[in-house]
Amino acid sequence: MTASDPTGTPSSGAAESSPNIDGGDVAGESAVATARRQLGRAAAHVDVDRGVVERLKHPTKLQQVSVPLRRDDGTLDVFTGYRAQHDDVRGPYKGGIRYHPDVDAEECIGLSMWMTWKCAVMDLPFGGGKGGIAVDPKMLSEDETERLTRRFAEEIRDVVGPKRDVPAPDMGTGPREMAWFMDAYSMQQGETTPGVVTGKPTVIGGSYGREEAPGRSVAIVTRAAIDHYDRDLEDATIAVQGFGSVGANAARLLDEWGADVVAVSDVDGAIYDPAGLDTANVEGHDERPGMVSGYDAPESMSNAALLELDVDVLIPSAVGNVVTAENVDDVRADMIVEGANGPTSFAADAILEERDVPVIPDILANAGGVTVSYFEWLQDINRRQWSLERVHEELEAEMLKAWNAVRAEYEGSEMTWRDAAIAVALSRIGDAKEMRGLWP
Ligand code: NAD
């Protein structure tokens, strides 16, 4: 399939939310349409060739494959898999593999575009990719998941590889799937190739600190943003929606650094203590389901109420599209730091901009995940594992470098933080395209 189908259609119009697609906020609008609108906004602020912007509206390549699966009962089902490769001017494509019933071409392309900006804003030598299978992983046994993953690896083997396209876990996949993918790829290559995917278990080339990296980067960026607005972290009140991998790691670190994390939540509800929760003692949903809402806190509330708390910083870290045109007027936080991908809808973004509420975007705040994936890739290529301390130190340095680049773009400009982050990415990508030129 090429860029002209089914995704080459120009984006269009109007209002409302599409909750299953991270970042989309217009009725029926796909992730790719939202990503294109964000690109258009940021491009208006950057001195970049219009032809480059046009190229970036389309993926370089979209692979669609059929993935046959022999079920445990002997019957056969066929699932559809995708790998979207958006742009590789700065290096191999990089991005997750998602197992979810809503996975489709447009979603993969939109998410691959965000990965291009995320890698460029972090100045990593990668471009954006994203893929997945339209399947509900909860309906598969472990053996079926393994067979499906191995067959998918085989179907997209020609377009991936450590120097070509490096997948990672995403919604519905984790280290276990990455281990099977790496093994299937390696068996066919005839050599162990750990660098083909990141997010692997540490015994087969995974990096220490990968799991906690997105939450850690959210905490580092939140601290820098609080400092930027001349506030003191120790006086700051913070509400975190979603106490999972991203949210719990961010909340615990900010708590450790002296902030008052007054509210956290899981899918069942939120807990609130105006004096600050002891987040180290609140167990996450994965650690023990139901423990967040079951924790003995002074007050419990709904997830919707958490979003409306009068706090210094709101960190939505659960799912996409939770701050929307419908509830944004009730959001009282002085600042939003996006832990999840796409928690603020396009319409809500515009209203927050009018109200001068800074929104520190996902492509910067949670980019610790792909950054430590880059460290993992380096470790795999060099066959040398880094210590956790080294991962933490290098992640901190990379996050502050990216934060300073985005802040320099933002300060004195008319841009939002999101525009500024995409603008930083876009100028780096534009420069690379200009240097390489267009062949033939
Ligand atoms: P997770 O499954 O570990 O945690 C999600 C948390 O959100 C859980 O506490 C869950 O109970 C809660 N939750 C789920 N649905 C909810 C809902 N409708 N309302 C309120 N809470 C709900 O997931 P995660 O890995 O922490 O990812 C969270 C977000 O961060 C996602 O948007 C993901 O795309 C993004 N992200 C994750 C990573 C990563 O590597 N884990 C990296 C970058 C971005």
In percent, how helical is the residue content?
25-40%
- Into which percentage range does the β-strand content fall? 15-25%
Gross morphology: globular
Q: Could you give a short account of the major beta sheet?
A: 7 strands, mixed
Structural class: alpha/beta
Strand order of the largest sheet: 9-8-7-6-10-11-12
Care to describe what's here?
With 440 residues, the protein is an alpha/beta fold. It has helices at residues 31-43, 50-56, 105-121, 142-155, 175-189, 213-228, 245-256, 291-294, 303-307, 346-354, 362-365, 368-382, 388-410, 417-436, and strands at 61-70, 76-87, 93-99, 127-133, 165-169, 237-241, 260-266, 269-272, 299-301, 313-316, 335-337, 359-360. A seven-stranded mixed β-sheet has the order 9-8-7-6-10-11-12. Helix 7 links the parallel strand 6 (237-241) and strand 7. Helix 3 crosses helix 14 (417-436), helix 4 (142-155) crosses helix 5 and helix 12 crosses helix 13. Nicotinamide-adenine-dinucleotide (NAD) binds at residues 214, 241-247, 265-267, 285-286, 303, 317-320, 339-341, 366, 369.
Task: Jot down its keywords.
disordered N terminus; alpha/beta; 12 strands; five-stranded mixed beta sheet; seven-stranded mixed beta sheet; 14 helices; 440 residues; 40% helix; binds nicotinamide-adenine-dinucleotide
Short structural summary:
The chain has 440 residues and is an alpha/beta fold.
SSE inventory with pairings:
Blueprint: H1 31-43, H2 50-56, E1 61-70, E2 76-87, E3 93-99, H3 105-121, E4 127-133, H4 142-155, E5 165-169, H5 175-189, H6 213-228, E6 237-241, H7 245-256, E7 260-266, E8 269-272, H8 291-294, E9 299-301, H9 303-307, E10 313-316, E11 335-337, H10 346-354, E12 359-360, H11 362-365, H12 368-382, H13 388-410, H14 417-436
Parallel strand pairs: 3-4, 3-5, 6-7, 6-10, 10-11, 11-12
Antiparallel strand pairs: 1-2, 2-4, 7-8, 8-9
Bound molecules: nicotinamide-adenine-dinucleotide.
